[in-house]
Specification:
Blueprint (H helix, E strand, L loop, with lengths): L13 H5 L13 E2 L5 E2 L24 H20 L12 H25 L3 H39 L8 H25 L3 H28 L4 H26 L2 E7 L6 E3 L4 E5 L6 E2 L11 E6 L2 E6 L4 E2 L2 E2 L2 E4 L4 E4 L2 E7 L4
Parallel strand pairs: 5-6
Antiparallel strand pairs: 1-2, 3-4, 3-13, 5-7, 7-8, 8-11, 9-10, 9-12, 12-13
Helix pairs in contact: 2-3, 2-7, 3-4, 3-5, 4-5, 5-6, 6-7
Length: about 350
């Protein structure tokens, strides 16, 4: 200000402006004492209480649904075959109890495998026990029921082919008939998978995937028997492939048709996706939660809720939760948003509709 200005009005000259210096725009101000004793309070663009984003980790194939459901289906089928095979005979005139239970037992243990596979991947012993206990009797009932339905369909198909002059299993038309009949077994696995998951949509996807997978497995069953000259080995390989194909089919169809999901980008479950079927999904360190977050003492038993609110997905935080690096208590999730809870990070995704 010029010394000639004797009144009380503050006047700033061009010389005053030229002497003013500004800090580097790229360097945020720190809260505390600046030079000369003046206090500074930080940049207005600096977010409040930001959370350092966790680096995205490479996902494991072991956490892909098509993989662990395929393995579960294969192991379930082999277990059923292993129990019944010692009491099974290859004879049109002799019949033992293994002949009667082999297919229903395979279907039952296939259902159990699908029911507990995800809980094993999530490392939740509680869920494994509960889902296994629920799926076993359900699988046994559906196994015997669907076995009768499949045999009925197979018999009708064979009678039609017989009228057409088909007499041997080397004819591909018989392979197709078996595949069509065995679609019923895949449907049983999908039904149990959806019931245990408490979702009608998951049941639908499971049935569709199971029908496709089991149908393909049924088609290759007779060619395998021909290549291995029948007997126990052919049944083992054939049933294992049916179980594998059914599980892979369920996993692929479910993934292809999903609408909204959380993909784990960091943490012990990096690479796994949680499809949001239910109106309310609970996340926390309690094994009863829908998304069980283990190995982190900072995560509460029920840490956050993901709720379907009309056409929107609402995140409600109970414990410390961040969305795109910012702490939140309630937040509508947009596709691509990153949710961080402790050492876990999730990327929310939804299918875009035309």
């Amino acid at each position: 200000m010029s010394p000639e200005n004797s009144d009380k009005t503050i006047k700033i000259t061009l010389d005053d402006l030229a002497s003013v210096t500004t800090p580097d725009a790229g360097a945020p101000l720190a809260i505390g004492q600046a030079q000369g004793g003046a206090k500074v309070y930080g940049s207005v663009s600096e977010p409040a209480d930001p959370q350092t984003k966790v680096a995205e980790e490479k996902g494991s194939i072991l956490l892909q649904a098509w993989f662990y459901l395929g393995v579960a289906g294969m192991l379930g089928s082999l277990a059923g075959w292993g129990i019944a095979e010692p009491h099974f005979v290859d004879s049109p005139t002799e019949f033992r109890w293994g002949n009667f239970v082999i297919i229903p037992l395979i279907v039952a243990l296939l259902c159990v495998g699908f029911a507990v596979a995800e809980s094993i991947v999530e490392r939740s012993p509680r869920k494994v026990l509960i889902r296994g206990a629920l799926s076993l009797p359900l699988g046994i009932v559906l196994g015997f029921l669907f076995d009768r339905i499949a045999n009925f369909i197979y018999a009708i198909g064979l009678s039609i082919l017989f009228e057409m002059g088909v007499r041997t299993t080397s004819n591909p038309s018989i392979w197709v008939v078996r595949g069509f009949a065995w679609m019923i077994f895949g449907a049983a696995g999908g039904v149990v998978y959806g019931i245990i998951g408490q979702s009608s949509k998951r049941t639908l996807y499971g049935v569709l995937g199971g029908v496709i997978g089991a149908g393909l497995g049924g088609v290759v069953f007779d060619p395998i028997a021909m290549l291995t000259h029948a007997g126990a080995a052919s049944r083992a390989v054939g049933f294992a492939l049916v179980g594998l194909a059914t599980g892979v089919g369920v996993g692929l169809v479910e993934s292809a048709l999903k609408d909204r999901w959380l993909y784990v980008t960091a943490g012990p479950l990096a690479g796994k996706q949680f499809i949001l079927y239910k109106p309310r999904t609970v996340m926390g360190s309690d094994q009863r939660c829908d998304i069980y977050l283990f190995k982190d003492s900072n995560i509460l038993k029920e840490h956050a809720l993901v709720e379907l609110a009309g056409s929107r997905i609402m995140l409600r935080a109970i414990g410390q939760t961040y969305v795109n690096g910012q702490p939140v208590r309630q937040q509508v999730l947009m596709s691509g948003a990153v949710v961080q809870i402790g050492r876990y990070a999730f990327r929310y995704q939804e299918r875009h509709r035309n």
